[in-house]
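Write out this protein's structure.
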Amino acid sequence: MIRSAALVIAGVLFAGQTATAQTTSPDSEDGRYTFNRAGDGYLRLDGRTGQVSICSRRTVGWACRLVPDERAALEAEIGRLQGESAALKKELIAHNLPLPSTVKPEVAAPKPDEPRLQMPSDADLNKMMNLMEKVWRRLVEMIASLQKDFLNKS
């Protein structure tokens, strides 16, 4: 009875060690990589870059290849399509063609540090005209005053 209990305990301990060895293999010295058993190979997670590779045994040794990152691929495709869409909109506008009804033209947002040009209002134009009129009258008065002074001196 004690013998069978010892065998059961040894079997459980051995099975626990085997299961642990299968799920995680020893990390590299600096702890950069984490390995997890996956089928006939291992998944390798790079702790610094976040890249995942699948490592499997080949005839000449072990080989690891990067697992495609679906999110990065999708973001790259979205960026490409947005650029293509903007180029098509510009081309349609350049050829004086209407945009489809569902597409709105992209309005370039003014940069916060860039001055924004605006047409002056009528009130602004009136103020400017009054100022110019005052400057002109004073200039004419100064010229008339200078002429008088020259005539009086001669």
